[in-house]
Amino acid sequence: MPLVLFVLIMMQFATAVRAEAVRGSLFVSTSAGSNGTMAALFVGRSPGGMFAERPAHVPVYADAAIGVFGGSDVELIRALIQEAESRIDGYDAVQFGARVKPPQRPTRMTIAEVFDWIAATPGQPHAIGRYQFIPQTLHRLVAKTGVKPTQRFSPKIQDKLADVLLAEAGLHKFRAGALDRQDFMNNMAKIWAGLPNSTGKSHYDGYAGNKASMSWARFDAVMAKISPESG
Known about the structure:
Elements: H1 3-26, E1 31-32, E2 38-39, H2 72-85, H3 111-120, H4 135-145, H5 155-169, H6 171-175, H7 181-191, H8 216-224
Helix pairs in contact: 4-5
């Protein structure tokens, strides 16, 4: 093979590898918030950012108990997350940037079928469901909860998976009065980019277009209704 041709081939290969690395490490899965801004569950890694060279989400309380919590307080929190992340389609929400949508509504698919769709459509965002799970997070939560691949990605299953995230954000400590409302809200904002933190902005504001899709005042007013501090 002529040397010039070999060099050109190697240059093309290096360019492709760099492009794939960018997609794998810098891509952020986003969804439209209630005010038309971008929101996302578990933004990807950002050079020099909080999650640089680390998983997309690092649990605050990694040893939190697993289980469906129930209760009016959790229902209220779940509704807030939907307002920030998937207001229109809820449990059947699919990231609007996904060029190839799932073959049917997410709640009619099994967990295995969701993963099959993800594997068959590389290079596009895959945030899915009421809580806009991205693949890395979904895999982790399914393994942690013991959900079977044959089970449907139903509202009940989605709530169960999201409850683990709430526990990891400190729900148990919040309920017990050992974690104040603002700290719990800030922890939640590190998980769901559509929620604001105490600065009034998304924890990921300005990263790939992310912005909070509700105000801190709105977030705090609802959380105050269930806070042990106000009981």
